[in-house]
Specification:
This protein is of the alpha/beta class. Helix content is 33%, strand content 28%. The chain is built from seven helices and ten strands. The chain has helices at residues 47-54, 77-87, 103-108, 118-131, 147-159, 177-194, 205-208; strands at residues 3-14, 17-31, 36-40, 62-67, 70-71, 88-91, 165-169, 197-201, 213-218, 221-224. The chain has a six-stranded mixed beta sheet, with helices on both faces. A four-stranded antiparallel beta sheet has the order 2-1-4-5, with helices on one face. The longest helix is centred in the last third of the chain and has 18 residues, at 177-194. The chain is globular and about 55 Å long. The protein starts with a strand and ends with a strand.
């Protein structure tokens, strides 16, 4: 088992509710190595919070996050930073590329903390950018690219450290129909060819339908569809 969430709860302070707003309520889920998982749910249901907890960007109030049997939410901040950089790739609705960096520079940002293997990372960047059709644009800046092209670069950046788990938060939410299909195809390609587990938060039934497991998040609980 790659990932296990056990009885995860998360509550945010809400001045309109004395007891706070319960977002996740004793939620549990598992993700196998190489599995494809979609999480559906209305806005405000806690989908992004759940993804952030999986990705160690947020901590649960209670519960346990296990990754390859290691309890992740007991790591120090330094340990979390190292774990996140090595084991998890992130793709967001907005690409979050640095405007002052060209395509190759943006892709290689996650590798900067690793002093070794520079040649191998450069070769991997070339390989991945070729596979998503962006190598010929490697010296362009984000402002010179379309939204779909930026999202392709963001996907390569997420894969540059060869993570075992790829988290995508509404990865097609800001794209038109043509690019939705292209990014969906690339996500599936990375899942199959790189054997990376994929957890996608989405409003898109079309994207969700390509995943092997689909959950609905409502009132703090996950229900398998």
């Amino acid at each position: 088992m790659l990932l296990q969430l056990e009885n995860i709860s998360k509550t945010y302070n809400n001045p309109l509710v004395d007891t706070g707003q319960v977002v996740l309520n004793k939620l549990s889920m598992e993700v196998e190595k190489g599995e494809r998982v979609a999480i559906l749910g209305p806005s405000g249901s806690g989908k992004s919070t759940l993804l952030n907890i999986i990705g160690t960007l947020e901590s649960p109030d209670t519960g346990t996050v296990r990754y390859n049997e290691q309890i992740i939410n007991e790591l120090t901040q330094s340990g979390l930073n190292h774990f996140r950089n090595r084991e998890i790739g992130f793709v967001f609705q907005l690409h979050h590329l640095l405007p002052q960096c060209n395509v190759v520079e943006n892709v290689l940002i996650p590798t900067l903390v690793d002093k070794g293997g520079r040649k191998e990372k450069n070769e991997l960047a070339e390989n991945l950018l070729n596979r998503v059709g962006m190598w010929n644009h490697r010296y362009k800046y984000p402002g010179q690219l379309s939204g779909g092209e930026c999202q392709r670069v963001a996907l390569v950046r997420a894969m540059i450290n060869q993570p075992a788990l790829l988290l995508a938060d509404e990865p097609t939410g800001a794209l038109d129909g043509k690019n939705v299909g292209a990014i969906t195809e690339l996500l599936l390609q990375m899942n199959m060819e790189e054997h990376v587990a994929l957890v996608v938060v989405t409003h898109s039934d079309a994207l969700a339908s390509t995943m092997g497991t689909i959950y609905e998040l409502s009132e703090g609980h996950l229900q398998k569809k």
